[in-house]
């Protein structure tokens, strides 16, 4: 049996942060830098590293997906299927991007920089998915009036440091109270949808992040749960209901186990 304080106060196993700190930073990163792709369902998000490998290994080379890092708080990584030097298929995981990285160069531009990425899982050409979100100039022509040659920032990865994985080599469970298999959580459940009943969702723009249920708040310590029986979406809804008297918080109805509707201004 696990109490709310175990999620909100106690660090996760082999980590120096709590589940809610990890979850909060993932939501914050999404709201500030990934709003468009998230709303379109292009970010799988809350899927474990092991599950992402299982999905990608059946796909054509160059297929990739975006998921929140298991071990890097407030980071999102790109996992993709490629071949190693021997021609063997491997799943590669790029070093996670943080909010600071996206302040320098956006997600769409970074994906465009990597010719190894072709298809967003399951079958969307990357240009179809991300070209609309590109806001930075990617090509300059001519020279400036003062005679300087223009330059630009482009992302590359160090092939010398790359090591593909056929099996998960870090904690395979994306930090969440939901048993061994992690559900897919994005507006359209882009991979392996596990819910179709009208459960509730939280609109990130309905309240400030500091007012999210469980963020810096105490849950009813008498409310305990069996760890493997918890569904994250239902858990969030139940947590939110405990703060239903707070006028700044509300839980919308009829959600597919997702966090969506991030359309209104912050």
UniProtKB/TrEMBL annotation:
Pfam families: SH2. Residues 38-117 form the SH2 domain. Gene3D superfamilies: EF-hand, SH2 domain. Keywords: SH2 domain. It comes from the Eukaryota. This is SH2 domain-containing protein. One of its GO terms (molecular function) is DNA-binding transcription factor activity. Belongs to the transcription factor STAT family. Coiled coil: none annotated. GO terms for biological process: signal transduction.
């Amino acid at each position: 049996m696990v109490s709310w304080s175990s999620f909100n106060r106690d660090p996760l196993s082999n980590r120096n942060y709590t589940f809610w700190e990890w979850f909060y930073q993932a939501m914050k990163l999404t709201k500030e830098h990934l709003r468009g792709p998230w709303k379109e369902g292009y970010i799988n998000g809350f899927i474990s590293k092991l599950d992402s490998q299982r999905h990608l290994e059946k796909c054509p080379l160059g297929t990739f997906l975006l998921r929140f890092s298991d071990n890097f708080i407030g980071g999102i990584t790109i996992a993709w299927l490629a071949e190693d030097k021997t021609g063997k298929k491997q799943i590669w995981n790029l070093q996670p991007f943080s909010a600071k990285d996206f302040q320098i160069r956006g997600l769409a531009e970074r994906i465009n920089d990597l010719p190894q990425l072709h298809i967003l899982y399951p079958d969307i050409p990357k240009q179809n998915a991300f070209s609309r979100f590109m806001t930075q100039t990617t090509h300059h022509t001519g020279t400036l009036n003062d005679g300087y040659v223009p330059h630009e920032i482009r992302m590359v990865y160090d092939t010398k440091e790359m090591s593909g994985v056929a099996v998960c080599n870090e904690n395979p469970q994306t930090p969440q109270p939901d048993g061994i298999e992690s559900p897919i959580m994005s507006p359209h459940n882009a991979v392996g949808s596990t819910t179709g009943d009208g459960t509730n969702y939280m609109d990130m723009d309905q309240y400030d992040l500091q007012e999210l249920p469980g963020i810096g708040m105490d849950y009813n310590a008498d409310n305990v749960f069996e760890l493997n029986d918890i569904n994250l979406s239902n858990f969030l809804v139940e947590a939110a209901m405990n703060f239903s008297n707070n006028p700044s918080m509300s839980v919308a109805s009829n959600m597919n186990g997702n966090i969506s509707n991030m359309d209104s201004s912050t």
